Amino acid sequence: MSELNQSNQPKGQVVATLSDNLILTRIGEGDNVSFEALFHAHYDRIYGLLFRLLGSRAEAEDLTQEVFIKLYDHAFTRRRFNLRQEHNIGAWLYRVATNMGYNEIRSRQRRWQRNLHLAPDPAGSLSTEAEVSQRETAVAVRKALAKLPERQVQLLILRQMDLSYAECAAICGVAPGSVGTLLARAAKAFQAAYEEEETEEVRS
Amino acid sequence: MNDSEIQETINQLSVLEPTPLDTPRPAAQALNQVRQRIQAAEKKRPPSFWQRFFSLARCGAGASPPLSCSFCPRLHLPQCARRRQ
């Protein structure tokens, strides 16, 4: 069915049957049902991605909402300027979420540099030994990831979230054939950074 | 690095997954907040270039065209048509 015919259908039908381009057009026209369906389809995954990046529930929740507000704005801008490119909304959301997550990490680092006393105690609110140990491992993993280029971190996290090579390629803007090589490189870099992190930990 | 080593490395990242304590608020609740934030942002948003342009523009009869007017307010305003007659 052509897109023109589809756009004559009643609004608010199942979003999964429509092309991403049409969904964006409908959101731009103020179709709340399309926006809600899209929100429900991607909310958990976008939150999961941001939580993995930031390690804070409050920040991840806040930024997840920001990502969808950006999507809403994007749909309206697209309509206003009559932009008609085909979009992969899922890839767009993941890309925006990663960028916003990294922006938050950078601004958090600046805040901490200004107010050292605000730096969180990694094991402050935890009770059991297992929880403390897990949190310490998570901190070490995050520190190792912080030494890697953003794209490598993005790839590793997306694969950890069980996204396919094709999905990773669309989100990272690389050819699907090169994902395997990039992933191997990222894994190797992570191992080196993690071992370095552990050595530093032992020394201190 | 072979595939199993890559997978092993990726599995190491599972410590970053949200625990049950980190479960986000329900999607419906979050969606409500998103709606409120969109409404608040729309109220604060300054008028676009074209909105400002049309609010300042005047047709031949001296009337200010409505914001929804198309790109040529002089041709579309009924006041102009009356004056031409």
Task: Provide a descriptive summary of the structure in words.
The complex is a heterodimer of chains A (204) and B (85). In chain A, 73% of the residues lie in helices and 0% in strands. Chain A has 204 residues and is mainly α. In chain A, α5 (89-114) crosses α8 (165-172). Chain A is globular. The termini of chain A are far apart. Mean pLDDT of chain B is 72; it is low at 66-85. Chain B has 85 residues and is mainly α. The termini of chain B are far apart. The chains are: A mainly alpha (204), B mainly alpha (85). Chains A and B meet through α3, α4, α6, α7 and α9 of A and α1 and α2 of B.
Descriptors for this entry?
heterodimer; A: 204 residues; mainly alpha; 73% helix; globular; disordered N terminus; B: 85 residues; 5 helices; 55% helix; 0% strand; disordered C terminus
Q: What overall form of chain B do the CA principal axes indicate?
A: elongated
Q: Which oligomerization state do the chains in this entry correspond to?
A: heterodimer
How many β-strands of chain A, per DSSP? 0
From the alpha-carbon coordinates, what is the Rg of chain A to the nearest angstrom? 20 Å
Q: What is the tally of beta strands of chain B?
A: 0
What share of the residues of chain B lie within helices? Answer: 55-70%
List low-pLDDT spans of chain A: 1-17
Our estimate of the beta-strand percent of chain B is under 5%
From the alpha-carbon coordinates, what is the Rg of chain B to the nearest angstrom? Answer: 28 Å
- Please report the two chains with the greatest interface, counting residues with C-beta closer than 8 angstroms to the partner's C-beta: A-B, 35 and 26 residues
Number of helices of chain A: 9
Low-confidence spans of chain B: 66-85
Question: How much helix is in the residues of chain A?
Answer: over 70%
| Biggest sheet features of chain A | none
* N→C terminal distance of chain A: 65 Å
Individual helix count of chain B: 5
Overall mean pLDDT of chain A: 82
User: How far apart lie the N and C ends of chain B?
Assistant: 83 Å
**What summary fits the major beta sheet of chain B?**
none
Shape of chain A: globular
Relative strand content of chain A: under 5%
